[in-house]
From TrEMBL:
The gene is tolQ. One of its GO terms (biological process) is cell division. It comes from the Bacteria. Part of the Tol-Pal system, which plays a role in outer membrane invagination during cell division and is important for maintaining outer membrane integrity. GO terms for cellular component: plasma membrane. This is Tol-Pal system protein TolQ. Keywords: Cell cycle, Cell division, Cell inner membrane, Cell membrane, Membrane, Transmembrane, Transmembrane helix. The keyword Ion transport does not apply.
Length: 229
């Protein structure tokens, strides 16, 4: 208990600059943890939804029926968004008798590439903030440490006989700033690396699906146009 009281007293008695540094770091830590929890949930759900949709897609369901089912939903993400964008563009272009299968597939693939870009952007939300917290928090904490130690030595120079008990509290409060900086940075760096890898896995998963779906639509377009090449 005494250790906790000692640390609390150091925080209270710290200089304004050091207290501001600690406050900024604590706010950054709380924000990063909130984003970590939310991003973890979103990425986990994205992976589960992708597997569910692929199971349904490859079950042999009619694509028009599946499109109507997906299109009826108010919010569509992940593979469903790619499927919706690709099938919608394919159907629109395929209705035009002047469009050859090559032109139809180029438009369809463009629509899915745009959809893929939007999905990756959605999955990467908050990751730049986590990267920023992980990279600058130690330096902010170090600034508080340097400032606190500098003030301790300035105060030490004003007395004729210096003792360790005079300078120790100032150095201790300064080092707390570094500790808080590391406390904010380490989880942010770990989460950023983990989430970045998960986004890469999902992006590859989405891209593979878009390619396979494009091949299916391409065969349909060639059959409809009587193009056996």
């Amino acid at each position: 208990m005494s250790g906790e009281i000692s640390i609390l007293s150091l925080l209270i008695e710290a200089s304004i600059v050091v207290q501001l540094v600690m406050l900024v770091l604590l706010v950054m830590s709380v924000m990063s943890w909130a984003m970590i929890i939310r991003r973890r949930k979103i990425l986990s759900e994205a992976l589960i939804d992708a597997r569910k949709f692929e199971d349904k897609f490859w079950s042999g369901v009619d694509l028009s029926k599946l499109y109507n089912e997906v299109n009826a939903r108010s919010t569509v993400n992940g593979l469903e968004a790619l499927f919706k964008a690709g099938f919608k563009e394919f159907a629109r272009l395929h209705k035009s008798s002047s469009k050859q299968s090559v032109a139809v597939m180029e438009g369809t693939q463009r629509a899915m590439r745009v959809g893929l870009s939007r999905e990756v952007e959605r999955l990467e939300t908050n990751l730049p903030f986590l990267a920023t917290v992980g990279s600058i928090s130690p330096y902010i904490g170090l600034f508080g440490t340097v400032w606190g130690i500098m003030n301790s030595f300035i105060a030490l120079g004003a007395v004729e006989q210096a003792t360790l008990s005079m300078v120790a509290p100032g150095i201790a409060e300064a080092l707390i700033a570094t500790a808080i900086g590391l406390f904010a940075a380490i989880p942010a760096v770990i989460a950023f690396n983990k989430f970045s890898h998960q986004v890469e896995v999902l992006e590859s998963h989405y891209a593979n699906f878009a390619e396979e779906f494009a091949n299916i639509l391409n065969r349909q377009a060639m059959v409809s146009n009587g193009d056996n090449s």
